[in-house]
Fold this protein.
Amino acid sequence: MTLDTFFQAKSIAVIGASREPGKIGHTIVKNLVSGGYTGKIYPVNPNATDILGRKCYPSLSAVQEPVELAVICVPAAIIFPVVKNVIKKKVNAVIVITSGFKEIGNHRDEMKLARMFKKAKIPCIGPNCLGVFDAHTKLDTLFLPIERLKRPQAGTISFISQSGALGSAMLDLAAAAGLGFAKFVSYGNAADVNENHLLDYLDADEQTRVICLYIEGLADGKEFMRVARKVRKPVVVIKGGHSAQGSKAALSHTGSIAGESGIYSGAFKQTGLIEVDDLEDMFGIAHVFEKLAVTPRGKRVQIITNGGGHGIVTTDAVAANHLLFAELSANSNQVLKKNLPAICSIANPLDIVGDATAERFILAVSTCLKDPKVDALVVNILPQTPTVDHDKAAQALQKMNITKPVVLVTTGGEFAARVTRKYEAIGLPVYQYPSQAVKALAAYVSRSIA
Ligand code: COA
């Protein structure tokens, strides 16, 4: 099955488009109209003549032109005549936003829905989902108003989420953090299209570099193992419903049988997926894959810092994440000793102390990049000190031939956020905390070095 239409459809019908601002069917049309989607939009509602200035159609069959994607948001009680019309129209793909199926024990209607679309060979996402957001084409079926949920900029992270609310809240955070997205899919009950189809699709998707996956249960465990084994891109996964209580919640959320968490963890390990426990780690790790494209040669990490405490915390994180500590070569030692003030500590961490200037950072980073005994760098640039000219440091870093993984840490508040953006703009992954930076680096390095 091809899933292209879900992200590239040139025409969309919203069936259940509502006249009433704030209602789901209204918001979907509004987001499509105002969010930058450039294809044709056909609102469908037998009780309306126009919605948001667009002509409204009494049924899908009243639309004369071909429609590629149908988004269904009428109540479950009246869905089947709508589904029949959608099939008759021969659309290429369908998203069913509507709730009221497997998640409330209504297996009969869910199976009927799945059977109808399977028979018609029309791929269907949902029911009980938000659908998709494509940051490149701006195809957006999320019913969260853009003024309440910012969409992330176009980039290379794709996110498959069984939960719509969790996924979309993360999308909002990711947008605020400046992460770049390719595709987001909330697939709900997975009556037809499931995580296996989506993983397979995104692995081949040119815009996707790293895949994030939030699952509560698997549609087909055996197939998941087969697909996950052959996926070449990094996949960062969170399994919801670890605890007995969480497992019960998953059942009433998307009707998923959450299963033994140990079995899932084993499966993720066997297939090379990167399992994390919380959402912050998921995006922290995705971010490093989004930004870096250098192949590490080993696990020897050199820490650079202008703050002693940060150096120590970073050291602990390096040890906890099973990375190795680099030992600077004799040549690097000599260069640094000659050019740094005597108060600096030339070791690991390499502490260039609180009055470090941009020049000190530039010297430290460039020396370590050249050192054959260093494989990767964690650079703590604490932005609060008055002596670092961050424009100068960022410009110099941008000109360097960075052939090793480098992650930055800029802990702090408002000013630090501005500094972070400067370093992010030159293509480096920047983190708030050393532990996040090191965890992400460890995941990145481990994928290349067994
Ligand atoms: N074809 C098209 N539109 C139709 C229709 C038909 N056959 N019959 C009625 N409509 C119109 C209605 O007139 C209404 O428009 P109006 O507000 O202008 O009158 C619109 O479709 C919506 O119908 P309504 O009965 O008002 O439903 P609703 O908007 O209150 O709820 C859902 C519909 C799908 C949003 C709701 O049933 C639902 O499932 N909500 C939960 C969704 C969810 O959480 N999904 C999972 C997210 S992770």
In short: The chain has three domains: 1-129, 149-291, 294-449.
